[in-house]
Write a structure and sequence with these properties.
This protein is of the alpha+beta class and 338 residues long. It has four domains: 78 residues, conserved putative lor/sdh protein from methanococcus maripaludis s2 fold (Beta Barrel), CATH 2.40.420; 91 residues, Elongation Factor Tu (Ef-tu), domain 3 (Beta Barrel); 58 residues, RNA polymerase II/Efflux pump adaptor protein, barrel-sandwich hybrid domain (OB fold (Dihydrolipoamide Acetyltransferase, E2P), Beta Barrel), CATH 2.40.50; 60 residues, Helix Hairpins (Orthogonal Bundle). The chain is 23% helix and 44% strand. The protein has a six-stranded antiparallel beta barrel. A four-stranded antiparallel β-sheet has the order 3-10-8-5, with no helix packed on it. Strand 12 and strand 13 form a beta hairpin. Helix 2 packs antiparallel against helix 3. It is elongated and about 150 Å long. The model has no long low-confidence stretch (mean pLDDT 88).
Length: 338
């Protein structure tokens, strides 16, 4: 009797183990869905860049000729008047060149005088040619006087010195007007603009008149200034092998505490739409060239529905406009975990 009971227990245990094995083997793992609600409201698109405050009009002053800086009359922060002398370099060999050029003019004039005294010994054409030689020698003198003028820098406007690169005793080497290092930079006083470099990937989104939120490192995060795009340079600038375009912003609610050269962060409002449905971009999938989202219909049974959609504006924080397919409030699947 005891042996029969023991046998039954063993058989039942085997059946339970076998049944449990086949149950768990055939049981489908539960799928977990992470969802986000399709929102309805305003969708904004912005481009974020950094910039610097700068004068609306500034001029870099550099020498056109090489020489040693003899005098530097201004420093950073000094105010200057239009026509005020700013810096002087030594004249170098200009005095010797001028003396030689004047002597050449005298020699050529004396030659013409001798030709006139000898009268018919020289043809009219020869005398005309000699006059041309004299004019060329006189032009050389004029050119040297112009080089004398290039040894002095004058401020072209009323303003303030915002940068100074040279020091008395330094040698200035002139290559060309475009590549010479400026000795000083004069900026017009008054309200400052913000200048920023926008990468080529974003410049197509930027247009004149667009607004921007501007924050300055020198101010608190609550001090937000309103800016407006007022200039976009058509020519590109290469910075560390990346193509940028210079964009200028006017500060509409200007604060007199803003100083030249302050660092700025800008959020440019490139586009926005009101009363639109949007979902996280990661919720949008593609199948055979068509975009769709998965909607969680029943959380208890994990029932989902595939809905084809069309998209529109790409907004901030990874949000994407759903132009058709959703009405708002749906629970779209953003992540599936098995």
């Amino acid at each position: 009797m005891f042996k029969k009971k023991k046998t039954y227990v063993i058989i039942i245990s085997i059946l339970l183990v076998a049944g449990g094995f086949f149950y768990f083997k055939n049981k489908k793992p539960k799928v977990e869905y992470t969802t986000a609600e399709a929102q309805k409201g305003t969708l904004a698109q912005t481009v974020s860049v950094t910039g610097i405050t700068a004068s609306q009009h500034e001029v870099e002053l550099s020498f056109k000729t090489s020489g040693i800086i003899q005098e530097l009359y201004v420093d950073i922060g000094d105010r200057v008047k239009k026509g005020q002398k700013v810096a002087v370099i030594d004249k170098g060999t200009l005095y010797a060149q001028l003396k030689q050029a004047k002597e050449e003019v005298m020699v050529q004039k004396q030659t013409l005088a001798n030709m006139k005294r000898k009268g018919s010994a020289y043809k009219v054409e020869q005398k005309y040619a000699q006059r041309a030689v004299i004019r060329k020698a006189e032009a050389a003198v004029t050119q040297i006087y112009a080089q004398f003028a290039d040894t002095v820098l004058y401020s072209p406007m009323d303003g303030i010195i915002i940068r100074r690169n040279g020091e008395v005793g330094e040698t200035i080497t002139a290559n060309s007007a475009a590549s010479n290092t400026p000795v000083v930079t004069v900026a017009q006083e008054g309200d400052l603009d913000v200048k920023a470099d926008v990468p080529e990937s974003d410049i197509v989104k930027i247009a004149l008149g667009q607004k921007a939120d501007i924050t300055l490192d020198a101010f608190t995060s609550q001090d937000v200034f309103e800016g407006e795009v007022i200039d976009i340079e058509p020519a590109s600038t290469i910075i560390q092998d990346v193509v940028y375009y210079k964009v200028k912003f006017k500060i509409l609610n200007y604060d007199q505490r803003i100083k030249n050269g302050m660092s700025a962060d800008l959020d440019i409002k490139t586009n926005s739409k009101n009363n639109v449905v949007s979902v996280p971009e990661r919720a949008i999938k593609e199948e055979n060239g068509k975009k769709y989202v998965e909607i969680l219909k029943d959380a208890k049974t994990n029932t989902i529905e595939k809905v084809y959609v069309t998209t529109g504006l790409r907004g901030n924080d990874g949000m994407m406009e759903i132009a058709s397919g959703l009405t708002g409030g749906e629970k779209v699947v953003t992540l599936t975990k098995k």
